[in-house]
Amino acid sequence: WRATGTRAERHGPYARRLVSAAHTADDALVDEALAYAHRSRAAVERIAPAARATVLERAADLVDARRDEFARLLALELGKPLKDGRGEMVRVADTLRVAAAEARRIGGEVLPTAGWQRGIGTTAMTYRAPVGVVVAITPFNAPANLLAHKLAASFAAGNTTIVKPPPQAPAVSVRLVEVLLEAGMPVTAVQVLHGGPDVGSRLCASPVVSAISFTGSARAGAAVARTAGPKRLVLELGGNAATIVCEDADVGTAAAMCAATGFSNSGQSCISVQRIYVHTTVFDRFLAALTAEVRKLRVGDPLAETTDVGSMVDDAAAARVEGWIQEAVAKGATVTCGGTRQRATLSPTVVAEPDPTSAIVVEEVFGAAVVVLRYEDFDDVLDVCNQSRFGLQAGLFTRDVRRIFTAWRRLEVGGLVVNGTSNFRLDHVPFGGVKDSGI
Asked: Less packed terminus of the chain by CB within 10 Å, N or C?
């Protein structure tokens, strides 16, 4: 660990005090890290898949044992309630074990060459080889689990990884890397460089790097792709998730699930519930039920066990969403609950029937607000959902199997959650989007 360079301090958005600090990497340190990774790649590749899997499984056990420690760090650095932080760390342990299982499954194929005339008498075989040096750039909203997804998968495949964590969560990120090192991951397999877009850009542009895994905004993802050039890219970008509530849905269940998954982590998730389209015949009943459920959410100190909604990542993020709410109201929308802000904490807000051109409908909210809109025709609402430039996940509440399969085929998203909201993910199941939601 180095202690050189500019010291960047992180003040907790709820605590309003210094909670962590990190040293920003300069160009020389970035270049040193790249050279070290390039030299180390062969040594990491030689580690047997079984040994890699054992390290990851041991790390998962350590994460389970230190779940409360990590949850407290997440609460201090990000304002994430303890219950959300513990939930994230359960997923981290799962992710590490999934990566361990995948390490044990890496293999190849024997190809059917004799099926074509020129292939008669030949045999072709393939095997999967590590790419070499991977850059992992992680976001603030789930800094531990998304670091686990990138670093554990990269190591499972036999690569060496340079991690650039989010400036908002340096302590959580470093602590997870420390746990992996304690579990036996060699120092040749992982490095951490703190900094902003300039550090990320220098890493992405390097010819030493073979693959980049980035999670963040669509704009930043486009910049990564331009800088990277012809490298392997995994870009997990933004969302503007829609959930459809049909007239045959269980309205009470749908409202309760939308309230729970629309405001977990203060709505700071790429698949968080944002746009809820409700059939006109059950619209009023759903809106009343959703409003009642949201009002039950406890807002406050993220270190309190009873808190459901803590703060957003910073004051500016909360102010942005507050401004979008005010814009929607000015265009004729109704706020049925919430709408107020205290520093970085935005009270959970339900916005009813906003103008479809409002920013809170069109853009990614990534905050503690959901919008409820009515629809009449199922085919039409699918078209409306597809008008978004994002396409990550969607939710659908219905008992009609024909609607389920119609939505599954027509919605331009990476995943459809049936009788659930958009905000559901299993870490061992394929996940990703289309359009501006990434590659």
From this structure: N
